[in-house]
Amino acid sequence: MAKARKVAKRRNGGRGFKIPLAVVAGFIPGVGWAAEAVQAGNWTGAMERLSLAYTGIRPSPFTITAGYLGKGLYPVLFGFLAHSLAARFGVNRMIGKIGLPIEI
C-alpha cells in the first residue's frame, strides 16, 4: 500500500492589517505644527505649514525652502528607514509572536 502524502496547510490571507508605528510617528511633528495654527483659527496658515513641512514649498509667494523639511519630511523618511531596518532584523516577527497589532 502506498504512503499517504502530507498536504501543506494553507493560510487564508494575511494576519490582518498592521500599522507601521515608526512611519506614523514621523507624521506627528509636522501635523502638530499645523495644528497650532488651526487652534489659533488660521486654516490658511495651517495648510501653508503642512506644505512647508512635507514638500518645502511655500505657496503664497512661491518659494522653495528646505529649512522646514526637518519638521515633516525628514521624520517620515527616518520612520521608513527605522521600519525597514526593524523588518530586516526581525523585530516585527518578534512583536508578531507576542500578538501586538503593530509593526515598527
Would you kindly provide a written description of the structure presented here, covering whatever features stand out?
Helices cover 54% and strands 8% of the residues. The protein is elongated, with a radius of gyration of 22 Å. A hairpin with a 4-residue loop joins strand 2 and strand 3 (63-64). The mean pLDDT is 86. It has helices at 21-39, 43-54, 73-89, 91-98; strands at residues 19-20, 57-58, 63-64, 102-103. Helix 1 (21-39) runs antiparallel to helix 3. The protein is built from four helices and four strands; from the N terminus they run E-H-H-E-E-H-H-E. The chain has 104 residues and is mainly alpha-helical. The protein has one domain (19-103).
Strand-helix topology:
Elements: E1 19-20, H1 21-39, H2 43-54, E2 57-58, E3 63-64, H3 73-89, H4 91-98, E4 102-103
Parallel strand pairs: 1-4
Antiparallel strand pairs: 2-3
Helix pairs in contact: 1-2, 1-3
What is the approximate shape?
A: elongated
Are there runs of 5+ residues with pLDDT below 50, and where?
none
User: How many DSSP E strands?
Assistant: 4
Q: Helices and strands, in N-to-C order?
A: EHHEEHHE
Q: Kindly state the mean pLDDT as a whole number?
A: 86
Strand portion: 5-15%
> What is the assembly state of the chains in this entry?
single chain
Helix/strand/pairing category: mainly alpha
Spatial separation of the terminal alpha carbons: 52 Å
- Largest beta sheet: strand ordering: 1-4
